[in-house]
Amino acid sequence: MQKEAWSRVTTSTIINCYRRASFVKETSEAVTDTEEGDVPVQPAGVTSQEFIQYVAVDDGLQTTADITDAELCCDQQAAAADVTAVEE
Length: 88
What we know:
This protein is mainly α. The protein has 4 helices and no strands. The protein has helices spanning 2-7, 11-20, 48-55, 69-87. The relative contact order is 0.09.
């Protein structure tokens, strides 16, 4: 099912994701798919409930967080200490 989902990702899907995430400047050009677009399609042999669970598997996943400079420095120092401990 995952392989089929990835095979449906088109070039314009990736371009639009980068635009929405502000990784590229907005342009007046609109990129559209000639295929079905970003709408998930339920594969054959998968129940509706299984498909809904699969599509929603990362709905509750935290993807961003506010972090202070002090917290960032502490995290980096801890990571550096871990690397040093492994090297010894």
